[in-house]
């Protein structure tokens, strides 16, 4: 959605429902698309918006989405009311959620799992660093609430249970029990450290394929969490990574590292450098794509000879001016003229477009070339000037050539025959021949060519 579409408020009727993703207890979730933009998908979450309590909950989710906004979170797009609901439109993540990825990772090697895990670990930590700096606790961090874009980057979402701690030291517990920290289960309390615990569990689950506190039953899993009893990490989880994970799932929230402290680790610093390098590379690629698109647009413009009249007129005026000033100033002025002629040359080269050539002629450019060919020092007249003039006569109708003929360019073209560059002289000969040919096709045989004697 571009800036204009984002800034233009939409209504429910502007969207079309593509799929129903509703699974949770909080609202209904749909994949939608704008009817006016059918190739782009979005997520729409509909929350009850009837009672004051409903409105408070829905408005708070929108506020949290806006506050949490970063490149690592699901982007908020817009919200509006429909019937008794508040509709929240958000970014659609094509890669599904982390729960689906964990399932797929079961068949991968340890190395592959760890490589995928590192990036997601870093990206979710960046979200927590941002949230916790605002004293916001997510409260419902779990694989189902971490989404993946088309490139596999993690986007943390579902801020429906997120709360700002404000002046309190903790908030009431919420979320899915298997990802609730010991203090949430034991004391109904959560802090920023509770999010760290949940992320630690998620990362272990990604690498090993198993929830570290998993028991034979749900009750046993809850008891394991309460008592801080987790499965020993496998031997392939070692070094700094092992230390980080064990500290993150420590039963004592005071002993867990903060998101900022975890991001200062050697592993995360390395990942940060890799991401910055990839971002730089992405910027270069995007700039290249942008340049290619601009070039393509320019080529299309050239192809159809949609050269702005004001540009053609200015070039005609500049070509008619005498070269004045210091040698440096003359050189700069000449370079600008060559650049503009090169642009015109690309438009003319190998293309038959009489209407475009007529516009060039009417802009005064032929008179400008006549001035250059008759008055500039020969050594200053480069091939760009002579070939641009030639392509005005090439692939054009007799009508166009006659318009050039009537401008009487022959004295200047004949002068170019003395040029030391044989290519410039060759362009001159070719131009004279084509213009003469048009003259013979459109004038009486008895009428002499105005420069017949000079040409001979």
Question: What features would you describe in this structure?
Answer:
Residues 260-301 form a coiled coil. It comes from Streblomastix strix. One of its GO terms (molecular function) is ATP binding. Keywords: ATP-binding, Coiled coil, Kinase, Nucleotide-binding, Serine/threonine-protein kinase, Transferase. The chain has 456 residues and is of the alpha+beta class. It folds into three domains: 1-92, Phosphorylase Kinase, domain 1 (2-Layer Sandwich), CATH 3.30.200; 96-264, Transferase(Phosphotransferase) domain 1 (Transferase(Phosphotransferase), domain 1, Orthogonal Bundle); 305-455, Leucine-rich Repeat Variant (Alpha Horseshoe). The protein has 19 helices and eleven strands. The strands form four sheets. It has a five-stranded antiparallel sheet with strand order 1-2-3-5-4, with helices on one face. The chain has a two-stranded antiparallel ribbon with strand order 6-9. A hairpin with a 7-residue loop joins β1 and β2. α12 (327-348) runs parallel beside α15 (383-393) and α17 runs antiparallel to α18. The longest helix is centred in the middle third of the chain and has 38 residues, at 266-303. The chain is elongated and about 100 Å long. The relative contact order is 0.05. Residues 451-456 have low confidence and may be disordered.
